[in-house]
Design brief:
The complex is a heterodimer of chains A (87) and B (215). With 87 residues, chain A is mostly helical. Chain A has helices at residues 5-20, 24-33, 41-51, 61-74, 79-82. The chains are: A mainly alpha (87), B alpha+beta (215). The interface between A and B is medium-sized, with 27 and 23 residues.
Chain lengths: 87, 215
């Protein structure tokens, strides 16, 4: 699992670029196929925060958020704290 | 309120992202972020002036305070601040109004008008806001008499700066006395609070407490 910002940053940059390029189809594909329980919380949060302003153009965004809530709860996190500004 | 400095802590051991304040000029404090970049180096990101969005080594004259955010969002914030630097380089207009200027989720500066700009304090506010952290309750914040004096002083200085245009200055002048000033010390005090968004009275109370500590 990627656990440091050095490891996560290339993925963060890639998803940021997808949003800049307005490639919502690819972004949607990522959200649909990613296994949330296998990735670090920071990268999960990045996927949500980077795309937040464009969420209405990403059809699976709300469903992804719902799945994240369940996963974070299962990991024992305070959902309201971690997802501040997103819910 | 825990305020750290080079005399009490090692800056290389910051908790990923911190908010900073100096006290060189009691009438004009300055703020920004100390944060660890992806190489684990501590950097100082701050809006020093018009198109002076600086990314440099930490200044040892600064005090730093933690931002009470969980570790995962702090890591996310690290990457976001790095992106602000990568996407904008030093380019960021300086202006007295908070309106019409913000950061996109990918770190790009968004300006509704070409002549909108931020201050060091509103840069911090907008960067945190882009990540879901609203520090201050803006709807109930009241403009103070002294705000106008500061705005006239800043716009006067901007007028003498070679990079600004007459159109930019005219646009900024429209805001004199009509928008609030958020002082660096107030923004820093709010960013260190767990109770955000804060109302004006609470922000002022905390900022007075902070001022006493750094003086």
């Amino acid at each position: 699992m990627l656990t440091t910002t050095k490891q996560i940053m290339p993925y963060y940059s890639k998803i940021s670029d997808l949003i800049i390029e307005e490639d919502f189809k690819s972004y949607n594909k990522i959200l649909n196929n990613i296994k949330i329980n296998e990735i670090h919380e920071t990268l999960v949060l990045s996927l949500l925060r980077v795309s937040y302003l464009k969420r209405k153009k990403i059809s699976s965004w709300n469903n992804f958020l719902d799945e994240v809530k369940i996963d974070f709860h299962d990991r024992g996190h305070d959902i309201n704290k971690l997802l501040i500004g997103l819910i | 309120m825990v305020v750290k400095s080079k005399d009490t802590h090692n800056v290389n051991e910051i908790d990923n992202v911190c908010i900073v304040i100096n006290n060189e000029d009691p009438d004009q404090h300055h703020t920004g972020f100390f944060f660890k970049n992806t190489k684990d180096e501590v950097k100082f990101l701050h809006l020093a002036w018009f198109d002076h969005l600086l990314y440099e080594d930490p200044d040892e004259k600064y005090f730093w305070l933690d931002i009470p955010i969980d570790k995962f969002n702090l890591m996310q914030m690290q990457m976001f601040l790095e992106n602000i630097h990568n996407k904008n380089n030093q380019e960021c207009s300086y202006g007295v109004a908070l309106d019409g200027v913000s950061f996109n989720n990918d770190g790009n500066l968004l300006q509704e008008n070409l002549h909108s700009g931020l201050t060091c304090a509103t840069f911090v506010m907008r960067a945190l806001e882009a990540q879901g952290y609203n520090l201050i309750n803006l709807d109930t914040w009241e403009i103070r008499k002294e705000d106008k004096i500061w705005q006239e002083k800043i716009i006067g200085a901007l007028q003498n700066y070679w990079k600004t245009t007459p159109a930019f200055i005219e646009f900024q002048k429209n805001y004199i006395g009509k928008v609030a000033r958020y002082k660096p010390i107030e923004v820093v005090a709010a960013a260190n609070s767990e109770e955000i968004p804060l109302n004006q009275d609470k922000v002022i109370e905390l900022s007075k407490k902070l001022l006493k500590i750094i003086q």
